[in-house]
Write a structure and sequence with these properties.
- The structure is a homotetramer of 360-residue chains.
- In chain A, helix 2 packs across helix 3 (152-160) and helix 5 packs across helix 6.
- Chain A starts with 40 loop residues before the first strand and ends with a helix.
- In chain A, strands 3, 4, 9, 10, 11, 12 and 13 form a seven-stranded mixed sheet that branches. A four-stranded mixed sheet of chain A has the order 1-2-5-6, with helices on one face. A two-stranded antiparallel ribbon of chain A has the order 7-8.
- Chain A has helices spanning 87-93, 108-122, 152-160, 224-227, 258-273, 315-334, 352-359; strands at residues 41-49, 53-61, 69-80, 95-96, 100-104, 133-137, 179-180, 183-184, 187-193, 202-210, 244-252, 283-291, 296-297, 303-309, 339-340, 346-347.
- The first copy, chain A, is 22% helix and 26% strand.
- Chains in contact: A-B, A-C, A-D, B-C, B-D, C-D.
- Strand 14 of chain A pairs antiparallel with strand 14 of chain C.
């Protein structure tokens, strides 16, 4: 790891690599984002209203037409104090036919309903296949979660606005109100590109971080959380909290069965472990992995033709999933700025200068 | 579109035991219903509006204060083309802290949000622990499912009106629009009471039936579906269907761990098998089991004191869970009346005279 | 069901169809055996020594060269009081690279070691990939199980002698000492052949039955066990029992992913349910399913080319798996003859005349 | 971390803490070993014969009389290229009634049979409950694995010699021939003792390490494997390998349900992740956790009285399980000495001086 000089403005936010933190040994893709997996789209809708509402929606679409062209997918629950709707059908069919929508814990119903509304508007003939995929973290420290502020239009805009290219990180979309390791968390992303001899595939991760306690935080192997003991969340009034969670989305263009994708989802949690988490009891630590290498028509067909990687030959992908997840988590911290929200509660962005100091 | 007149002789509805069909060998409880398990409450809200809307909500509460006093629970997915929100947290915590709410596939989001709204109204301080438990079947043959007709008040009324005592069955609550084995299905319930030497415990089942094809139907071992080949659903216009499913709720007052309750949930599917189902690919066949023998405060406590049945001594409960589920399914058929709904589609109640004829 | 006339010699053993019992609606393959799936081999080694030893080994090979050419596979544990070695690797790799070997509970180690010995003799270069697949039932009522009478040669002969064609049933191979529903059980098999419009695939089942209590027994929907209450096992001295189990092996030539095979394995347990079982707590009720449509080289390869059935189009296979399992269980009973074994314990074969009488 | 001075003899072996490597923040128990959990016994049998045979057996007994007094237990498979016999019954009954026996991949059958033999000798009346618990790693680089050198007496001695107190680590017992991160691995152990306010419970870990590639190795957050690129295994002749794995045994005296123990087993894999592993495809990464707080009679009983920790209050135990596993893995490396075995293959013990240098 090479520590680049950085101007120490407390609120300058940069990605980990921009300040010299290089996680792992595999090279990232050009954007170092889940969108390096071709066809994957990400959309954010950030909702900040007055002092109290700091929440939002983030969507990941495996492909623009995922509603009609399903992709192989699987999910892994490391610790289940979280919601991932739609999971039984993903596991049974080995397919994902919905955007993965991330939001706050109290708005799962609103968001679910908005996804169905969107689907019905999009396809006037659609009457079946209605199992929306919504995951959540609890943002009640910074967000007046009881207001359930998410409207259908928020969800529609997140989906319609989803795009490839660079992904906004930190306090954005579903990440606006999230807290991770006692610092401001939120959205982070990263990617890894295999060497040509390993197939040249790309693995991308996008995380919504809201987990962990300060003393646990590890960055690139260094127990940074023990070095920066101040700047804890300033809770002006008890928020009745709360739970904390991390949702990890893994995308790849490698041709994989759903079962192999389950294995990738599990490796995401190994990347999580390297940032210090032990998946606390009140945490919903859930990973979803999908492959864009094949798509299957919603209407089904008698025979599917699949090319898949040998289940015994997946190590480079495993390494990539762990590394990309670890770096995505760090990015969610280094990119999230200090936020004051509900009841004046204040959560600090990790100070980059002190982070680099601790890493020396 | 108008509702065709129906001859009322054909439509006399009775429970299986009332017409002499006795499933299994264990005696039912006094109500032969899930509410034989003391403290369990059931509420229905039936929603029929004009020609198109035939849907509803059914709730099962393990106890009135389940929001604050959680009970051991577990779920089993036989085939996952269905939704059961809240499942990861049930599995992880071994506890259920929400009513189990059954509804139609397109209204999961609406119902989920209404449960959260209800919770917030009920408890002004509540800000966390927000993982509602909603399961669904697809009622789009008889219900204009795209209308998403369920309002928060429907859910509130179902919860507030939930009670012990006899349980309405057939085309009621979430069961209004359901179709099972090509006959009108919906809600069914049954119970079994152990002998004193087996502990005297009660096991109750409540099902929402929307599964199976006609030729599969077996009643008390007899392939009735092959005997009654007419009276198939009259589909006047393709409903773009659809999927079919069964949700099975198992309650008991026996003291059991969550893992042992998982085993009861699995036995529910053996009862299902005896009615002819092979859990078709488009079916969401999901069982949830809970015990009322203990309740745990939502806020937690360092040590829980549990008395539990030995995991090796559960056979009478297994038998009871299978029998009660089988009989509940039959009750859902014999109690559901012929219904004409969306687009004039018409689904016949199983004719009791011909059923008895076939059973002779 | 058409009841054919049968000569009433108590010990005449016939297959269910030979005496007019026709389970289900799908036609069997030409042998009505698991070996109707082309390439599948079955071998038995029956070990009867003196009064006490009544045990054996039964092997199912997906293909002769399964050691080097692996096939997609999956397993499902309905109730886990049983052993299935090798399961983690099957589930992880989605592949089976060993014969499935059935035996008695005390000889799992012996048989496991013999399989490794066989493998080493067969392939002098082989040093890795050593996870033998052994399943068991407890035959201690008829077999002096403490003697652990199985020698390597027994296993070698079962493997070397494995063949296609008709399969011996009843008190043969691993089934010699087994007891099912209080009658003599053991090995049974059956198959189903899909219609051409459903792909023309074959599904075969082979079971080792040692499960259930008499009063539970149901044959073709009729509670036969309640009709034949005598002829219970004559236990001259307490055998310190015991446990009871059923191992179900499902084979198909349909191209399926491991996950889809898991679904077939689950349907086997629905067939089991129809014979009356509720999977008692002391029972190891385990199903393994494999497909012969593809084989993958043990050494691996970067890309596997797979044609697979759409995961949403499997209903005919599900029906077939349930039916074939149900019929295989019945065959295991109707083919097993009255056996006197360890300590003079005596277990009766189900009397075919009384069975047919009960079915009328 | 404080780096204590150490004499740099290449083959001086010390535990991590002896050379100043302190993993995590929770204090170890007095022995820093799994045997800090009262009643837990560990036994080793090391088998070195001539040049070729370098293998052995290690047993962990939750209690001396575990054969008759079962303890709550659960297992978690992170990656399944490994064997853990007995797993279905552990999961179903929530109980463990056998020693956990670790050995090499080719000797699982031998060891399994020896455990049954031991049980039969120990209890002349025992005829049922015969599901031995055997796990394995592949030691074929240093061991002539085809010889299957383990005799029943080896297993008997390991069990009979099992004791509390300090635990031998490194190239001992089942660890004699194991290789981890390209260094000599084997047996390692560690423990953590909760603060009184967290209940004062102890969590212990014992690992058999045979996993990982050199470049992955991380010690206390530092990518040591990238710093020490030489001293790779010297393979004089291709060993036809082989697979690599890690078995993790977690013990605690905290009163826990089996489901809660499953959560501890999962946290062991988070500790594994921190040593650099991504659970490669050919690895059998399996964790088993048990509690000594309760014991249940083998014969069963209608009601079990359990005191258990609230499933929502387990964080200190989770942290402890992760930390103890991580440290146990490091101990397995720092305690294992350079070994020359089969075909002259040579695997180096990690040089402690260079390790400390890298950690500076």
């Amino acid at each position: 790891m090479c520590l680049a000089p950085v101007a120490a403005g407390a609120e300058e936010r940069k990605r980990a690599r921009e300040i010299g933190i290089e996680i792992g040994v595999i090279a990232p893709g050009p954007l170092n984002a889940i969108t390096d997996v071709e066809g994957v789209l990400v959309g954010h809708e950030t909702i900040v209203e007055g002092d109290g509402v700091h929440t939002g929606v983030t969507v990941v679409l495996p492909r623009k037409d995922v509603w009609d062209r399903l992709v192989p997918a699987s999910a892994f629950v490391l610790n289940g104090n979280g919601q991932l709707t739609g999971m039984p059908w993903i596991e049974e069919s080995e397919l994902l036919g919905f955007p993965i929508v991330l939001t706050n814990s109290a708005s799962v119903g609103q968001v679910y309903d908005a996804v169905i509304e969107y689907l019905f508007r999009r396809d006037p003939a659609r009457r079946a296949g209605l199992q929306a995929v919504v995951a959540e973290c609890w943002d009640g420290t910074l967000n007046d979660i009881r207001r359930r502020a998410i409207r259908p239009e928020h969800v529609f805009r997140a989906i319609d606005g989803a795009s490839g290219g660079a992904v906004a990180e930190g306090a954005v979309g579903a990440g606006v109100g999230m807290v991770s390791y006692g610092f401001k968390g939120g959205i982070g992303t990263s990617s890894r590109r295999m060497l040509p001899e390993n197939g040249g595939y790309t693995v991308g991760a996008l995380v919504l971080t809201n987990h962990g306690s300060r003393e646990q935080l590890v960055v690139d192997g260094v127990p940074v959380g023990r070095a920066i003991r101040d700047l804890l969340p300033e809770i002006h009034e008890d928020s009745g909290g709360g739970g904390n969670s991390i949702i990890m989305v893994i995308a790849t263009d490698a041709p994989l069965t759903a079962r192999a994708l389950q294995r990738l989802a599990r490796r995401a949690t190994l990347g999580l472990a390297r940032t210090g988490s032990t998946a606390h009891a009140s945490s919903g630590d859930i990973a979803v992995a999908f492959s864009t290498a094949h798509a299957f028509d919603r209407r089904g067909g008698a025979i599917l033709e699949i090319r898949t990687l040998d289940p015994r030959e997946l190590d480079p992908l495993f390494d990539a999933a762990a590394e990309a997840t670890e770096e995505a988590i760090v990015n969610s911290l280094t990119m999230a700025e200090t936020t004051t929200g509900f009841r004046g509660n204040r959560v600090h962005g990790i100070p980059l200068d002190r982070l680099l100091e601790a890493l020396k």
